[in-house]
Write a structure and sequence with these properties.
- With about 425 residues, the protein is mainly α.
- The protein has a single domain (about 1-420), classed as Amino acid/polyamine transporter I (Up-down Bundle), CATH 1.20.1740.
- The chain is about 80% helix and about 0% strand.
- It has helices at about 1-10, 10-20, 25-35, 45-65, 70-80, 80-115, 130-145, 150-175, 180-185, 195-205, 210-225, 230-260, 265-280, 280-310, 320-345, 350-360, 365-375, 390-420.
- The longest helix has about 35 residues, at about 80-115.
- It is globular and about 60 Å long.
- The relative contact order is 0.21.
Length: about 425
């Protein structure tokens, strides 16, 4: 028991970053992927999870070894303009994910608290969607400024939220009982003739977040980790990413068993279908997991965007500093504003959510040169650059993001026109 407690007190930075990655966008993309392709696309979140594990551990080492933050090194090497551009690009990514967190809170709370749903009937809203959205943002802003050491408080609650997600999604897996052979076959890469690159891009973007990986360095700096913490930190991060990647795959496999061949718009549709097959309890526990995913990402995601924007503009990288909290509030308000605008413009939440997730890949060309600069540079930092194996792995991971951005670019433009152009 003592060893378990010791492990739980050390997993903070790794699990915080990983919990941010698994949000409503991940679950919605996995649900749609399973409904459309069955088990065949399980290899996509698996591949993205491997890439995420590598970049997270690399930037963990950077945060421990370097005497300056990521964007500080970018600013000193290539100038303020590029550091500011990178900070703004990564802020945009977080703001896009924040919209998804708002949607997830409203959807999950309604699904969790709604009364029994009759077959063929949609889940009815308990409160207007704006009430959940505005309420959660108001509480987040209050929490952000009410406590001096926000990060340390968030870190303590993250393990419980991760545990809830694991329990509820595996419980639904038990109800659905997907095919073990189908699960294993789906882990082998295949590209069907009707491959949906837009959906694949959204799945990769919500599993392999280069922004969250970069911020791992900021988290360990805030925690004050030293070289002696690195090995255990790596093990904790990899285990955390493995768990959360597996959760995404579990949702995909459950959807493959329950929804394959059906039209699915949101993860709420999956919750509805689970109730039809297995009763109200299954729907409720799915929605508990959905809300946990949204809530675990809600404030931390905004803090990531706010701190990176603050550091990019040269106001410092202190997570608990006033500039970072002000910009974090801005991220919260932008995400809330987009969610409310989409709602009252009568635009599909699901279409806008997938568009926002996939669209974040378009900022990758801005961040990639900075990533290579920091990881490969031999000057201006006490960080020991990655070796040739690390360089190959870094280039391979970045090429994955570029490939998905290129393959989905036309689809993203088409979805923009379809979603907002009428």
């Amino acid at each position: 028991m003592k060893k378990l407690f010791s492990w739980l007190t050390r997993i903070g930075p790794g699990f915080v970053v990983c919990a941010v990655v698994l949000g409503p966008g991940s679950l919605t993309a996995a649900t749609r992927m399973g409904a459309k392709f069955g088990y065949a696309m399980l290899w996509i979140p698996l591949m993205a999870g491997v890439a995420m594990a590598y970049f997270t551990t690399v930037f963990m080492r950077y945060g421990i070894e370097s005497n300056q933050s990521f964007l500080t090194q970018v600013r000193r090497s290539w100038g303020r303009w590029y550091a500011g551009l990178c900070g703004f690009a990564m802020f945009f990514v977080c703001a896009s994910f924040q919209f998804g967190n708002n949607v997830g809170v409203a959807t999950g709370m309604d699904g969790m608290l709604a009364r029994s749903v009759q077959p063929g009937e949609p889940i009815q809203s308990v409160l207007p969607p704006w009430a959940w959205i505005v309420g959660f943002n108001a509480l987040s802003i209050l929490f952000l400024f009410a406590f001096k050491k926000v990060y340390s408080i968030i870190e303590k609650g993250m393990t419980a939220l991760v545990a809830i997600m694991v329990i509820v999604f595996f419980a639904n897996l038990y109800f659905a009982r997907p095919s073990p052979s189908g699960f294993l076959k789906g882990c082998v890469p295949t590209i069907p003739a009707d491959m949906d690159w837009f959906l694949a891009a959204a799945t990769v973007a919500t599993t392999f977040s280069i922004v969250a990986a970069i911020f791992q360095g900021y988290f360990v700096r805030a925690r004050g980790w030293q070289q002696s913490d690195y090995q255990k930190g790596v093990a904790d991060s990899i285990s955390g990413i493995a768990i959360l990647t597996l959760v995404t795959m579990v949702v995909l496999a459950t959807s493959a068993k329950v929804l394959q061949g059906q039209q699915v718009q949101t993860a709420a549709d999956m919750a509805n279908q689970l109730q039809r097959l297995f009763g109200t309890f299954s729907r409720v526990i799915f929605c508990i997991g959905f809300v946990s995913a949204a809530f675990s990402s809600f404030l931390v995601n905004a803090m990531i965007g706010g701190t990176l924007l603050s550091d990019g503009f040269g106001f410092g990288d202190n997570l608990n500093g006033t500039p970072a909290k002000v910009f974090s509030t801005l991220a919260l308000l932008v995400g809330m504003g987009i969610a409310l605008a989409v709602k009252y413009a009568h635009v599909s939440f699901a279409d806008a959510l997938m568009l926002g997730e996939a669209g974040t890949l378009l900022t990758i060309p801005v961040v990639i040169p900075a990533t290579m600069l920091v990881l490969f540079a031999r000057k201006r930092s006490t960080f020991q650059p990655v070796g040739w194996v690390g360089r190959v792995a870094t280039v391979a991971g970045l090429c994955l993001l570029i490939f998905m951005a290129v393959m989905s670019f036309e689809k993203i433009l088409q979805r923009v026109h379809k979603t907002f152009g009428g």
